[in-house]
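chain below, 311 aa
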Amino acid sequence: MLASGDIRRCSREENPELFWATVGGMGLTGVILELEVRLRRVESAYLDGELIRAANIDAAIEAFERIDSKYGYSVAWIDCASARNALGRSLLNVGNFATLDQLPQKLAQDPLNAAPRPSSIVPFDLPGFALNSLTVKAFNAAVWMFHRDRAAHAIFDWDSFFYPLDSIRNWNRIYGKRGFVQYQCVWPPGESRAGLVEMLESISRSRRASFTAVLKKFGAQDGLLSFPMPGYTLALDFPVTDGLLEFLDSLDAMVLKRGGRVYLAKDARLAPETFRAMYPNLGKWQTAKAVADPNDRFSSSLSRRLGMYPA
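prediction:
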């Protein structure tokens, strides 16, 4: 539904300009009343795959590239506190949804019902000093050692594969009352390795603790303001401390110079000029926006901060 109240059906073939402006368009083109999506049929709630230990960022990228044609799903925990030869060491979870004949007999009896996994809870906000470069480094070393003897082949339930942090309830309390800022960026394929090395080295030097860090490989995306692009994406959680916003500005500069961009759906501090440089299709999006909502009735704090509409 457009700002005028008119209803438009949009797809790749019908009103494609509005369709691609709406995909990744931050809800600023109108209200989606009905959505049709294509799903992939699966036989179970489990993934059949591998747990891969990568000793550094080069080994992690090599593993992603090696399994790319074999597995449809991949995600990696990455150690942002490591340095030197261990810079960017990672644990990759990769897999495809398991067929019935790939499951152990016990799981195959009820393949679409993954048992709830046990969870721990953070009962209160930790003090600000609890999360620092030393504690994060110790935690990451423990995670790396814990997986030292794990078998390569693995069966994952969908919940633990896609949402590993949910095994710790109220995990955000680890960051204390000041909270955290999540920073996620992506680089194009030819710049991903250099961008990752540059950012990981900068984080290591800064001694800023990213308790959780995730590395993924992206495929193509066609939305005008969509975040994904072919290449590697890194998601980081930084506790709010003095100087953090200035440090994130420096990360923006690293990403921008290599043709990458920052995830708008997680952003609360990107500069307008940096946004415009990172999203070169903004002009095309503005054209579609002007047709769908000429008076800018659909707005947000993010869109006003970033100056997404032409003056």
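The chain has one domain: 46-278. The radius of gyration is 21 Å.
thats it, cya
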